[in-house]
Write the structure tokens for this entry.
Amino acid sequence: MTTPRRGGDPPSLRDEVTDAVYALGWTVVRKMPESVARLVFTALADRTWHRYGSGVRQLEKNLCRVLGKDEVDDEVRILSKKVLRSYLRYWLEVFRLPEYDRARILGRMRVTGEKKIFTNLEAGRGVILALPHMGNYEHAGAWLVHCGYPFTTVAERLEPASLFDRFVEFRESLGMEVLPHRGASAFGRMAQRLRAGRPVCLVVDRDLTESGIDVEFFGATARMPAVSAALAIQTGAALIPVTLWYEGEYWAARVHEEIPVPDEGGRQEKIQAMTQELARAFEEGIAAHPEDWHMLQKVWVDDLDGDGADDRAGGRG
């Protein structure tokens, strides 16, 4: 939804307008009748799909990978329309989530395998929950907080700074600790939280750094972050993938099996193997619910151009 500008550049008119749009979302949209808001956001999704901009074209290219197709056809076009509606539902719910009470957040969440999370945390062992851009992970975070487990996460530093501040304020209002995405200090603070037996949640199906790991993903090479595996190796925390989707008015999640640290190999080899296992878990979840994978950016190495700077600039983090 946003395109961050480079740090240090003066605010542009586009920056100011973007910030105003998000401010409007957390005020007007938050208070609108829900039925009206859903109609508006569905119309926005369909309009975006019909305009067929670069994000939609990249989405359909990504969906071709998921479906094993060589080119876009009617099936891919229909699916991409569903994805846009799911994506705009995510944004609608982001703006309205502060209005949801505890009963709704807990009562409309359907989770399988959650005992793997709670058993580790109750034993004092940190947990790294690794997610793709699926469903509504903001709501999943609120669910975890209401279950009694506030957690730490990171956010891509957006520009203008006021927009980044809005996202931090929003997530902190839900009970999350939010760290800026870049820098060794964020890694160190997450490691501290994990050693203290707390959860850390990371969205890691798209690399936003210069140090991503190449993995096989739907039959081609994609680049994913190394951070979740590196944290597990360094702290002994449990690395657990989670995939998310929508089921009608409900939110749904599958907590996959823990990815253990391999017994053999050097640190980099272990990171490679664990990140590959993470990619396989994401494959399962995305293949089962491709309409809820909101990936409008480049993920596969063949699609990345130059240094990939443009690809790291957009989307939700």
Remarks:
- Residues 74-96 form the longest helix (23 residues).
- DSSP finds eleven helices and nine strands in the chain.
- Residues 1-11, 307-315 have pLDDT under 50 and may be disordered.
